[in-house]
Inverse folding.
């Protein structure tokens, strides 16, 4: 059995990159006689210097010692930057190995260091006298620094390990038939076909991170309010406790919005974290404050009791200025300095794949309409009781049932969004990030639509003052539901996508 390695021409063909004219190749190589198909395909194969005798293990066996000139170092550095790899064959089984690696010292990619692999480890699996599988691994501990244009003496070594397996010889090519590492070479259709694009960062990633931060904050706010209701903090006949708790908890949890937003923005390799933090702070607070002051103006013009005294407005302003905003900045700084990285199970290709034409019902709006129906049906009854409590004279005290309904709402939102995300990926549409958020948050639009029915059929309200207050504040509440459930839908989809594509890698 002979190990065959691709020469310079085949490396260039496989890498699909610009041509490098003088990549160093081993001395005294023996060319393999090429067939007409191999010649037309651009393949030029030579015998490799690695000696892989059957069941003979080796450790750090020296292949050769090579003097690399400054030009050689520069060529290897360029090839490493362009993700060049070489392809070998052992007993007709293919092996792919990258020639080097890149160490990015910052997320922006402006400070990169290039290293050439000099140690290959061959793992060969056999069954009786048959080779079933072979792969090659690189060792990051044995690399050559390519960052300076200077002459180098490099010693290339390799290790061979033989392992017994129960795999059948007739099925040994099945793994390579369905291998997803090089997606461009596959004829497979469906969600597996977009392996190299599924974790491509979304458009407007600063805004995307901000909506996730705001959604995380509102989710935390909702959980804390429900817990306080369960332990009996909100006395049934003191309705002011709930409003006061909402204001103070919102101000305190604004730091969670800053932390979550900048952390995720940092994971998406964003650089302008200050802008991201300001967007996160204003995304929900901005429309809420605008609506509040607008409705206060309406109430003052009508001389209604709904107009808050100046002292109360001043207290709210001071609370936002000296509590909420500093916590937002503090959370943003902590998130910016976090060292967590965005974990993905597969490599993202450099060029995005074109999305095939899709039917109308796979568009954003039809999918949102479908996604919000089931979760809204879960909370339909409780929505009515909450509305008559907030805008009527009823008192809501069964927080235990409300908490259970909220958990069911989260589960329904997650399951529906995951299902629609899977159908989207199966249609080879890899732009699922924003779609999963919009589908998850669409329940908020259903709730706002229900508000129209409640206002005209149940509320008994009339006049511009009551209409503006009802729809103004309900619009803010439904917008908050949209952000919160959108975040839940995206995080559930992210967990699902990581799992299914991680299982491909494990295979």
């Amino acid at each position: 059995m002979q190990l065959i390695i691709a020469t310079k021409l085949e490396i260039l063909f496989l890498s699909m990159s610009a041509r490098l004219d003088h990549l160093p190749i081993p001395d005294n190589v023996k060319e393999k006689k090429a067939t007409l198909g191999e010649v037309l395909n651009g393949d030029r194969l030579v015998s490799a210097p690695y000696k892989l005798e059957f069941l003979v293990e080796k450790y750090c066996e020296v292949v050769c010692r090579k003097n690399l000139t400054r030009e050689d170092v520069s060529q290897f550095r360029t090839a490493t930057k362009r993700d060049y790899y070489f392809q070998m064959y052992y007993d007709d089984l293919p092996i792919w190995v990258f020639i080097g690696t890149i160490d990015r010292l910052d997320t922006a990619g402006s400070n990169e260091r290039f290293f050439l692999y000099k140690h290959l480890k061959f793992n060969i699996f056999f069954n009786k006298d048959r080779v079933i599988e072979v792969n090659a691994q690189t060792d990051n501990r044995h690399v050559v620094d390519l960052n300076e244009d200077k002459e180098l003496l490099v010693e290339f070594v390799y290790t061979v390990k033989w392992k017994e397996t129960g795999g059948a010889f007739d099925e040994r090519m099945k793994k390579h038939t369905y291998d997803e590492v090089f997606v461009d070479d596959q004829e497979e259709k469906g969600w597996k076909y977009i392996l190299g694009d599924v974790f491509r960062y979304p458009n407007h990633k600063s805004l995307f991170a901000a909506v996730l931060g705001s959604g995380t904050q509102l989710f935390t706010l909702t959980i804390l309010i429900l817990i306080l209701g369960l332990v009996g903090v909100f006395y049934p006949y003191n309705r002011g406790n709930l409003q006061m708790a909402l204001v103070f908890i919102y101000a305190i949890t604004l730091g969670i919005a800053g932390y979550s937003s900048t952390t995720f923005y940092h994971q998406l390799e964003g650089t302008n974290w200050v802008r991201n933090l300001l967007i996160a702070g204003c995304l929900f607070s901005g429309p809420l404050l605008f609506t509040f002051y607008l409705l206060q103006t309406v109430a003052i013009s009508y001389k209604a009791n709904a107009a808050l005294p100046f002292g109360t407005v001043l207290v709210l302003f001071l609370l936002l200025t000296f509590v909420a905003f500093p916590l937002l900045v503090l959370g943003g700084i902590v998130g910016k300095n976090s060292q967590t990285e965005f974990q993905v199970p597969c490599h993202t290709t450099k060029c995005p794949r074109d999305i095939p034409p899709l039917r109308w019902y796979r568009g954003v709006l039809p999918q949102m309409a479908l996604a919000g129906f089931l979760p809204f049906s879960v909370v339909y009854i409780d929505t009515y009781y909450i509305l008559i409590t907030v805008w009527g004279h009823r008192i809501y005290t069964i927080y235990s049932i409300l908490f259970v309904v909220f958990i069911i709402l989260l589960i329904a939102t997650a399951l529906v969004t995951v299902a629609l995300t899977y159908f989207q990926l199966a249609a080879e549409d890899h732009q699922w990030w924003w779609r999963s958020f919009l589908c998850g948050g669409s329940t908020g639009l259903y709730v706002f639509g229900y508000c129209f029915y409640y206002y005209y059929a149940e509320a008994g309200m009339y006049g511009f003052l009551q209409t503006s207050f009802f729809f103004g504040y309900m619009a803010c509440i439904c917008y908050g539901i949209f952000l919160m459930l959108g975040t839940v839908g995206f995080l559930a989809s992210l967990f699902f996508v990581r799992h299914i594509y991680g299982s491909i890698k494990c295979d």
Observations:
- The first strand starts at residue 3 and ends at 6.
- The radius of gyration is 30 Å.
- Residues 1-22, 181-188 have pLDDT under 50 and may be disordered.
- The chain is about 50% helix and 15% strand.
